[in-house]
Amino acid sequence: MSARDLAEIGGFSDSFARELLAGQRPFPQETQSALEQLLDDFERITQAFAQEMREGERRIYIYRTNEQLRASPVGRVWPARGRAAGGFIGAYRAAVFNAWRNLQNQGINAQLIFAETPEVS
Question: Is the pTM of this model over 0.85?
Fold first, then answer.
């Protein structure tokens, strides 16, 4: 998770988020709760991708930015966390790679594709 993502979740500045990540300040309770929810999202996404791949889907789209993820079909169903609009590319990619790696160990291969759409500016 980037400092910018943390700042968006908590509704505070990037510099305050960097101080949190450096251990210089305690995390606000509301932010802690949002991060716990994000961890649950990570686990659900990992499970959903693993299930899709077991059922035959062999293409996984990797998004480049939070905005592109949020505009995608996956991102549109991702709930808001804290004061943030929704999905986060870091958590999404980690979940995808976690599912991909676990399934490779089971002999199930999938193609990782950088998404060209949706286009966002």
Answer: no
